[in-house]
Amino acid sequence: MQANDHHSEYLARAVAALTPEGRRRVDELLEQLAKVVGGHEQVLRFAKSREAEADLGLTNLAGGTEPGDELTTQELDVLIAGFTTIRDQEPLDDIGGWANAVLALLEDERSQSRPAR
User: Fold this and answer.
1) What angle do CA 115, 27, 89 make, to 5 degrees?
2) What confidence category does residue 55 fall into, taking pLDDT thresholds of 50, 70 and 90?
């Protein structure tokens, strides 16, 4: 099994495990992240994708490319820092598990070649 497949399954389990309170908190956290990153279009797309997943309790909703595939190294670094903070500071276990699953996907993206922009 490839790492991306394994981490996608990990994210699917983490999203399915979110409680209603956890889903609301994910929305809040992703809105805060979107405000912090400002004009990074791909980062906002990534955050919106994660928000939709949490709201619906399902992953891989885009049906096309993963929004993380288009992130630059700098954008990945911003997201990794943000999700590390979420994982380390949020008291809800389901949020910590979700943030950790997102981090695993981001680390996979970091290990691959990045688009030139």
Assistant:
1) 85
2) confident
